[in-house]
Design a protein that fits this description.
Layout (H helix, E strand, L loop, with lengths): L1 E5 L4 H12 L5 E8 L6 H10 L4 E6 L1 H13 L12 H19 L4 E3 L8 H12 L4 E3 L1 H4 L5 H10 L13 E5 L2 E5 L28 E9 L2 E5 L2 E2 L2 H14 L4 E7 L5 E7 L1 H17 L2 H19 L6 H13 L5 E8 L2 E8 L7 H4 L10 H10 L1 H12 L6 H4 L3
Parallel strand pairs: 1-2, 1-4, 2-3, 4-5
Antiparallel strand pairs: 6-7, 7-12, 8-9, 8-13, 9-10, 11-12, 13-14
Helix pairs in contact: 1-7, 3-4, 4-5, 8-9, 10-11
The protein binds arginine.
Arginine binds next to helix 4, strand 6 and strand 7.
């Protein structure tokens, strides 16, 4: 039997290599690691996989693909789960699962294994994707069934097989980091009232220790996609990294939230989303001038559906494809620049411009040069208020109060 397994180099997936082999008739294990910008030593991870018993180990740079095929398509709809979480983990999983499926097929493997727990959302994202892309493959989730139910048992199992224990195993947190952000769970934070400990934060400076001044930056967009920083064209990966460094220095992008997981439980999540915070802010602002009112309102409603689809592991589904077509169409003229000012813990919009801006200074101005014909408003008010006036007259005629306040006797 041949099994391709998702491999991060952490304790769980390291223990999985010998466990999968031992429990599947000395199966051949192929480890797969995708670089989504987690900032880890990838050659060391590859060597570790081989030392731990994998027959082969693939390590691939997926950053560009992650940005082009997942991050930008989530930025364009403004996808923030429950209005807040920029979905970095949720976006990375379908890409990893897609590559796992492709590698499994290319290697003639029988199964794919992942290291997700039974309580999390990540199992959903891996498994829906694999079922959508390679339904013939068996899926294995050792963490849902193995006898190593405590961390101590896993460590003992690893020591018996001379698997080096990652230093991070000493930390009480479960951390998932990539280009778009970082998620930190467990430890003291499971108590909702406890403030996240200072050492929980992985990327961002504490805002109280950020530089005291401020900095201005201009992000350029083309058809909804960020393409430049301060006038210099940049590719997506470089742009995100640069914005991330900048935002981290100022302590921007810290999020502490309780969210609803797919499996029905609530969980406390601490996130760092430095670049995502700046880019969502700037993109949303640019849309305010480039989209007409009806499209903008409609899109805002759709953005919640889009975020749910991503969160719930449904990236590779017909509905996501349909919504993405709408979103892409809506972005055709979301081109222009947004200027931000950043200071300790804060990012604020200070300017926006676009060749497709629907803002008309002549119509908006209260100074000279006003092109708005104020006489038009009188007739408009008559018609706009007509329905309300009709309701009031009918109510009065029937001896009813004209407003709910009177009805409930407030
Ligand atoms: N709650 C987030 C999500 O479901 C983050 C999960 C992070 N995973 C982790 N192993 N720390 O997308």
């Amino acid at each position: 039997m041949k099994i391709v397994t998702a491999y991060s180099g952490g304790l769980d997936t390291s223990v999985m290599i010998p466990w999968l082999s031992e429990n599947n008739g000395a199966a051949e294990i192929i480890a797969y690691t995708g670089d989504l910008g987690q900032g880890e030593d990838l050659p060391a991870i590859k060597a570790k996989a081989l030392n731990t018993g994998a027959k082969k180990a693939f390590v691939e740079d997926l950053q560009q693909r992650f940005v082009d095929d997942f991050i930008w398509p989530a930025l364009k709809p403004g996808a923030l789960y429950e209005g807040t979480y920029p979905l970095h983990t949720a976006l990375g999983r379908p890409l990893l699962a897609q590559r796992l499926a492709e590698v499994a097929i290319a290697e003639g493997a029988d199964a794919i294994a992942h290291g997700c727990t039974a309580k999390g959302n990540d199992q959903v994202r891996f498994e829906v994707t694999i079922r959508a892309l390679a339904p013939q493959l068996k899926i294995m989730a050792p963490l849902r069934e193995w006898e190593l139910v405590t961390r101590e048992m896993e460590v003992a199992y690893a020591l018996e097989r001379k698997i080096p224990i990652p230093v991070t195993a000493a930390k009480p947190y479960s951390i998932d980091r990539n280009l778009w952000g970082c998620a930190i769970e467990c430890g003291e934070m499971e108590n909702l009232w406890a403030e996240p400990p200072a050492d929980a934060w992985q990327m961002t400076q504490d805002p109280t220790g950020a530089p005291s001044g401020s900095e201005e930056l201009t992000i350029g967009f083309e058809a909804g996609i960020p393409v430049s920083l301060n006038g210099t064209p940049m590719n997506g990966v470089a742009l995100i990294k640069e914005l991330s460094d900048l935002a981290c220095r100022y302590g921007i992008g810290r999020i502490d939230m309780v969210e609803n997981r797919v499996v029905g439980l609530k969980s406390r999540e601490v996130y760092e989303a430095p670049a995502a915070t700046l880019l969502h802010l700037a993109h949303t602002e640019l849309e305010r001038i480039c989209l007409d009112r009806a499209t903008s309102n409609y899109k805002r409603r759709m953005s919640q559906d889009f975020a749910n689809i991503i969160y719930e592991g449904l990236w590779f589904t017909p509905l996501r494809e349909c919504l993405a077509s709408f979103i892409d169409q809506s972005q055709a003229h979301v081109t222009g620049d947004v200027r931000l000012r950043i200071s300790a813990g804060l990012a604020q919009v200070t300017g926006r411009r676009s060749p497709f801006s629907l803002y008309d200074e002549g119509l908006a101005t209260y100074s000279h040069g006003d092109t708005f014909d104020r006489t038009m408003a009188t007739g408009f008010m008559e018609i706009y208020g007509l329905s309300a006036k009709t309701v009031a007259m009918v109510r009065r005629r029937n001896g009813l109060p004209t407003a709910a306040r009177e009805q409930v006797g407030i």
